[in-house]
Structure formats: C-alpha cells, structure tokens
Amino acid sequence: MLIEKYLSEYRVDTSETGTLCPFTEDGVNRIGELSEYNAGKMLKMAYDLLDRAADIEGKVTINAEFVTDRRDMQGDTDGYGTIIESADSTDLVKKAKGHE
Asked: What's the pLDDT tens digit per position in 54-78?
C-alpha cells in the first residue's frame, strides 16, 4: 500500500492510478524483504529501481527477478545503511517533554 500510494501521488500519467504498475506484487514483496520492511528504505529502493528501469529502452516490469538482479548489481540495498545505523539517535519523546 505504501508504494502504491506514492506512485499514485507522483504519476505523470494518471491512467494507472491505484495500481502498482510498473511494479508487480512479487516485486514489491521482494523490495519489502530486502529493505526489512523499513518504509524509508522501501521507498528509496523503489525510487532507485524506477530510475534504473527508466534507463532501459522499452516498457520494463519491475518484478522480483528485476529487483534481485539490480540489488546484486548494486550490492548494498541503499548505500546508506551503515551511515544511518552509526548515527547518534535522539529520543524524541524525551526531547518533546523537555527531558533531553
């Protein structure tokens, strides 16, 4: 639903609004698995896959095989994993209550 919502919001051609096109359901499931169902990572990976598919001549379907092949070519799922994981974290609840 997350990817479908973002696709619907940013489509130029609105005739496919409400669909996963150019993704298939198994492609979206694979994106979820590879990104550990982290919403930000899923959207980043979906964006990167759309960008790669746009460079291929003809209409491309982004299925599980396409996702896996592109991930294998890229290596890390998003390239930012280690940077995010090593960053200092902030407890936003405590910060909001003034208990930093």
From this structure: 999 988 899 999 999 887 665 544 4
The boundaries of the domain holding residue 79 are 2-96
* Distances, alpha carbon 42 to alpha carbons 2, 85, 93, 97, 98, in Å: 9, 16, 25, 31, 33
pTM of the model: 0.67
- List Cα–Cα distances, 93 to 23, 90, 96, 98, in angstroms: 37, 9, 5, 9
**Tally of domains in the chain:** 1
Nearest-angstrom CA–CA distance, 87 and 80: 11
Contact 30, 64 (CB under 8 A): yes
